[in-house]
């Protein structure tokens, strides 16, 4: 009798479960049936890029995933992503809560993970400061140029020995963020600076493991540290503590003159102006501290990884590297280093940078958005709180836009018949809409100045004459090439 009761109970459970899991016609279809509690989490491949391509073929440009307790909708194709993030930006510009954000103890502050009026003011002030530094004063270009010079010397010191230059590139791009925030750079062997870089690297490398906690928060409470939550938390708090000590020191010596050359001073001056004018403001120390964290996290790894990818492509396509070198030699010469003023003259180099960003697509799923209200998209009704993944790969690798060779490295696709640079609207490595990358202008300037100086002075060769490193990658917070060595040979 007991066995019969259990069988009946199980059948009732299955009937109820299947009834509750029936497709909701108001929502986009799902590629596979979700499981109880975990949803599609166990269906996710370690590398989601090919999996998402297959699911797009199966379901179309929009489909639903259930990740733990959250409904996640994936958007594919330029037209649909633009409709959501640009045309319906009011509804699609929210940001869900992520573990790496709350682990800082400053969850919901700053620019990247904030929402509502707080986000609008923080982003507006940060953008206006960056624009002021980039225009007129040209502070950004000067800071980058100074750092590039130090980086060139560090590469020269390698004396052509096979070396993995990823760490030194990370350090150099981090130094630009330091210079932007603090008005100063650090020596590459500074132990505190190296510790900061190491902890930032931990956040990037462990994102794959900790991401499950974003959808199943109770996993954080399990004994041990299988999902790396404790490791991530320790790194986040250590970084915040380091940045906070810097902020306290800077506050004691705020430069309130018209010659402000770092973000901390500029932010504090803007805050003081609003307070003195009796205006309500969200500008405060906690938000400034979180903006510092955001800029380090987002502004270091992405730029250095793009440079790392570009060099890997140059090893695999040596004829492209020589064409870039020839262009620089012809347009700039060898008697001076390239500057930002040369950018409009070096079309082929710009095309190489753009093709690197397009093909590498280092943030293929962008940063997750969230519906701040119920909204209709492509005849589907998405509830408030729905997580939105814009699949940038589906735009940057779209054969209908880039041709049948979309998965090949061909910079010429960005050059028109007159030799001028093309910039198709589908070229969106920084995403689009109100949540597009805050540091886009800074990143473009960095990539140009680093790579133009590198290809003018050095030739980059494989570690040995028997083959080139493969175009293989690993996934983390960004898509990073598998570690490889390169010989940096001075062209002089």
UniProtKB/TrEMBL annotation:
The record's keywords, sorted A to Z, are:
Heme, Iron, Metal-binding, Monooxygenase, Oxidoreductase, Signal
The keyword Metal-binding is annotated on this UniProt entry: yes
Q: Name one GO biological process term.
A: xenobiotic metabolic process
Per the entry, which co-factors are needed? Answer: heme
Which molecular-function annotations from GO does this UniProt entry contain?
heme binding; iron ion binding; oxidoreductase activity, acting on paired donors, with incorporation or reduction of molecular oxygen, reduced flavin or flavoprotein as one donor, and incorporation of one atom of oxygen
Q: Which residues form a coiled coil?
A: none
Among InterPro entries, the record links this protein to: Cyt_P450, Cyt_P450_CS, Cyt_P450_E_grp-I, Cyt_P450_sf, Cytochrome_P450_fam2
Looking at the keywords, is Metal-binding present?
Answer: yes
What is a single cellular component term in the Gene Ontology annotation?
cytoplasm
Q: Which residues form the signal peptide?
A: 1-21
Which residues are listed for heme binding in this entry?
437
- Tell me the protein family, please: Belongs to the cytochrome P450 family.
- Protein's UniProt name: Cytochrome P450
What organism is this sequence from? Candidula unifasciata
């Amino acid at each position: 009798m007991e066995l019969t009761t259990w069988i009946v109970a199980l059948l009732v459970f299955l009937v109820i479960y299947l009834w509750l899991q029936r497709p909701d016609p108001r929502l986009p279809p799902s590629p596979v049936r979700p499981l109880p509690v975990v949803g599609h989490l166990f269906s996710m491949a370690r590398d989601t890029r090919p999996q998402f391509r297959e699911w797009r073929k199966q379901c179309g440009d929009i489909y639903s995933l259930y990740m733990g307790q959250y409904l996640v909708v994936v958007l594919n194709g330029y037209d649909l992503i633009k409709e959501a993030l640009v045309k319906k930006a009011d509804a699609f510009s929210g940001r869900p809560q992520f573990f790496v954000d709350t682990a800082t103890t400053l969850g919901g502050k700053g620019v990247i993970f904030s929402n509502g009026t707080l986000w609008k003011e923080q982003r507006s002030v940060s953008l206006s400061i960056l624009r002021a530094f980039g225009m007129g004063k040209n502070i950004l270009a000067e800071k980058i140029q100074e750092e590039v010079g130090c980086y060139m010397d560090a590469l020269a010191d390698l004396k052509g020995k096979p070396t993995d230059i990823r760490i030194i590139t990370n350090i150099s791009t981090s130094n630009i963020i330091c210079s932007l925030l603090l008005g100063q750079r650090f020596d590459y062997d500074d132990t505190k600076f190296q510790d900061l870089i190491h902890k930032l690297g931990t956040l990037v490398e462990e994102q794959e493991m900790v991401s499950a906690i974003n959808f199943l928060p109770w996993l954080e409470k399990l004994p041990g540290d299988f999902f790396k939550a404790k490791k991530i938390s320790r790194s986040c708090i250590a970084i915040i503590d380091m940045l906070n000590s810097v902020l306290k020191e800077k506050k004691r010596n705020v430069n309130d003159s018209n010659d402000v050359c770092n973000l901390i001073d500029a932010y504090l001056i803007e805050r003081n102006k609003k307070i003195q004018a009796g205006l309500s403001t969200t500008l405060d120390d906690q938000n400034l501290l979180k903006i510092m964290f955001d800029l380090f996290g987002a502004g270091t790894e992405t730029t250095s990884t793009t440079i790392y990818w570009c060099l890997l492509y140059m090893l695999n396509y040596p004829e492209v590297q020589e064409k870039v070198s020839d262009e620089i030699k012809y347009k700039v010469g060898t008697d001076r280093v390239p500057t930002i003023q040369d950018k409009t003259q070096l079309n082929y180099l710009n095309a190489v940078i753009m093709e690197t960003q397009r093909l590498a697509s280092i943030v293929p799923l962008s940063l997750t958005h969230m519906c701040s209200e119920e909204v209709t998209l492509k005849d589907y009704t998405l509830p408030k709180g729905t997580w939105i993944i814009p699949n940038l790969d589906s735009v940057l690798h779209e054969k209908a836009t880039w041709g049948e060779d979309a998965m090949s490295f061909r910079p010429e696709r960005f050059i028109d018949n007159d030799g001028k640079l093309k910039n198709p609207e589908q070229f969106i490595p920084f995403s689009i809409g109100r949540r597009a990358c805050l540091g886009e202008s800074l990143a473009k300037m960095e990539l140009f100045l680093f790579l133009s100086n590198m290809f003018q002075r050095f030739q980059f060769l494989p570690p040995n004459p028997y083959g080139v490193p493969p175009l293989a990658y690993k996934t983390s917070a960004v898509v990073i090439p598998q570690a490889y060595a390169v010989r940096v040979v001075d062209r002089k």
